[in-house]
Amino acid sequence: MKMRSYTIIRNIARPFVKVFFRYKLENKENVPENPFIICANHLSLRDPVCLACSITPPTRYMCKAELEKTPVVSFFLRKLRVIFVNRQKADLGSIRQCVETVKAGYNVGIFPQGTRIREQAKAEQAQDGVAMICSLTKATVLPVALIYKSKKPRLFSRCRVVVGKPLPYEEYSAIRDRKEQAHYIFGKVCEIIDNDGNKNS
Fold first, then answer.
1. Which domain holds residue 149?
2. Is the pLDDT score of 133 beyond 60?
3. What does the pLDDT look like over 140-162, one tens digit per residue?
4. Domain contains 64
5. I need a labelling partner for 166 at 20 to 30 A (CA). Which of 26, 96, 105, 195 fits?
6. 168 within domain boundaries
7. How many Cβ atoms are within 10 Å of 169's Cβ, its own excluded?
8. What single string gives the DSSP state of each residue in 20-81?
9. DSSP character for 167?
10. For residues 201 and 31, what is the distance between their CA atoms, to the nearest angstrom?
């Protein structure tokens, strides 16, 4: 598995993304060695772009399968090595790709909520699939919070990419119930958002 096209496209796009989406990476020192799984909240279409440009190690992001039907968009997404996922069923093929990606030494990016949600992020919004993927890969989870001033970010709105402490497999795997495990994992993202809100209130 090669991620050369991902790196080339990301490096070309990064200066433009920096200007138009104004992302800022915080707590870079928390980013662990490869491989790991990024788990982040999902508020805007720009979220995966800001993540890809701010967190340097090549990462395969999970993406809704509907975008695969749009020729031009699909072409670039394939070059970026995204993992298309059918959200209407248990997509075993996409799960297998996640496992293979981690085994190859690369990272996977997941939005546990499964879709964009503009209301306050809550642990209970996480889909069970995130727990299955994390457990099967046995990878370290990197919780990341995407924080905007507005719930409807526009062009030039600042995006803060706040990296939390890595969550080791031994910690989340101790929770046997799949749903509770998913809530626990995404809860770490919610904690970053809640703590940030309390700090700025």
1. 25-59+102-200
2. yes
3. 999 999 999 887 888 889 999 99
4. no
5. 96
6. yes
7. 15
8. HT-EEEE-GGG--SSSEEEEE---STTHHHHHHHHS-S-EEEEEEGGGGGSHHHHHHHHHTT
9. B
10. 27
